[in-house]
Amino acid sequence: MQSNRYFYEIIFVDDGSTDTSWEIIENLSKINPAVKGIRFQRNYGKSQALDAGFEMVQGDVVITMDADLQDNPEEIPELFNLIKEENFDLISGWKKKRYDNVITKNIPSKLFNAIARKTSGLTLHDFNCGLKAYKKEVVKTVKISGEMHRYIPVLAKNEGFSKIGEKVVQHQARKYGQTKFGMSRFINGFLDLITLSFLSKFGKRPMHFFGLLGTLMFLVGFSSAAYIGFSKLYKLSKGLKTILVTDNPWFYIALTTMILGTLLFLAGFLGELIIKNNKGEKHYAIKERTQS
Question: Which of 231, 272, 236 is nearest to 250 (CA)?
Answer without folding.
Answer: 231
